[in-house]
From TrEMBL:
The gene is panB. This is 3-methyl-2-oxobutanoate hydroxymethyltransferase. Belongs to the PanB family. One of its GO terms (molecular function) is 3-methyl-2-oxobutanoate hydroxymethyltransferase activity. One of its GO terms (cellular component) is cytoplasm. Pathway: Cofactor biosynthesis; (R)-pantothenate biosynthesis; (R)-pantoate from 3-methyl-2-oxobutanoate: step 1/2. The active site is at E185. It catalyses: (6R)-5,10-methylene-5,6,7,8-tetrahydrofolate + 3-methyl-2-oxobutanoate + H2O = 2-dehydropantoate + (6S)-5,6,7,8-tetrahydrofolate.
Length: 280
């Protein structure tokens, strides 16, 4: 069954069998092909697109059209992985109708299999409406970047009793609303463990410790594509920034000193033709 598509049923089975779900973010076709070939279970087209690819300093400017454009590119590169589309700022708050309509675009126009959205009890009515339309929904609790101005920065969430209780009741409300999975971002390890043991759906952690049912990271962070400072929870699995910078310097040097392009990179033509056109 290694060739078959990852579905919400796969998520359910993996939680039951205690096999960790692997998820990574992706925003374009080439990376989607690589992540799918590597057997990553789920690909999140995150609204971190804003930070990682579009150069904004938050996820708030990202629009539905931005997201649809990138989800389309990702889906063209994927055979097996589940593609989850992150719903951007204000695309699921205004009404049940707009929430369903926007979620539907990701499946109908772009080819995703599920959507993700941030928040707890306050979004549950709209989550239910999306689920009722036959669209699998992944929740997202803890550090929810679209609320950065309300949280007063990117900080660990759920540390005090009130916040921890709120997170637990939000998780239960999302389950009641029909989500198949919940991302837990930047929450203390023991709280993520408690939520994971309390809910029947698959929890996916980012900065939430090893006891979640799965893990997600921003691919550009774990590959260190930018050579910048990353949040504490990011492990660098490669240092691509250095590799890319070395390649760029080598190219510049070789073009400037004339060693590139050497003969092997050029095309020849017959001398006859050359002589003829020179004689004209
Ligand atoms: N490249 C990238 N990676 C991400 O993980 C990510 C984005 N972009 N954009 C959207 C959000 C923003 N995220 C962030 C951003 C910063 C921290 C951060 O600096 N956290 C502090 C915690 C401070 C504390 O409360 O102790 C850290 O040091 O990790 C965490 C998550 C996660 N998401
Ligand atoms: C960090 C993940 C969970 C996310 O929401 C994103 O990449 O936008
Ligand atoms: Mg996001």
């Amino acid at each position: 069954m290694t060739g078959s598509k990852v579905t919400t049923a796969t998520f359910r089975n993996m939680k039951q069998e205690k096999r960790p779900v692997t998820m990574l973010t992706v925003y374009d076709y080439p990376m989607a092909k690589m992540l799918d070939a590597a057997g990553i279970d789920a690909l999140l087209v995150g609204d971190s697109l804003g930070n990682v690819v579009l150069g904004y300093d938050s996820t708030i400017p990202v629009t539905m059209d931005d997201m649809v454009h990138h989800v389309k590119a990702v889906c063209r590169g994927v055979q097996k992985a589940m593609v989850v589309a992150d719903m951007p700022f204000l695309s699921y708050h205004l009404s049940r109708e707009t929430a369903v309509k926007n979620a539907g675009r990701f499946l109908q126009e772009a080819g995703a299999q599920a959507v993700k959205l941030e928040g707890g009890i306050e979004v549950c009515e709209n989550v239910r409406a999306i689920v009722n339309a036959g669209i699998p929904v992944m929740g997202h609790l803890g550090l929810t970047p679209q609320s950065v101005h309300q949280m007063g920065g990117y900080k660990v969430q759920g540390k005090d009793e009130t916040a921890a209780e709120k997170l637990l009741s939000d998780a239960n409300a999302l389950v009641q609303a029909g989500v198949f999975s919940i991302v837990l971002e930047c929450v203390p390890v023991p709280l993520a463990k408690l939520v994971t043991e309390s809910v029947p759906v698959t929890t996916i952690g980012i900065g939430a410790g090893p006891f979640c049912d799965g893990q997600v990271l921003v691919t550009h962070d774990m590959l260190d594509i930018y050579g910048n400072k990353a949040p504490k929870f990011v492990k660098r699995f490669a240092s691509l920034y250095q590799i890319i910078m070395d390649a760029l310097s080598a190219y510049k040097e070789e073009v400037q000193n004339g060693s590139f392009p050497s003969a092997e990179y050029g095309f020849s033509m017959s001398n006859d033709v050359l002589e003829k056109i020179k004689g004209q």
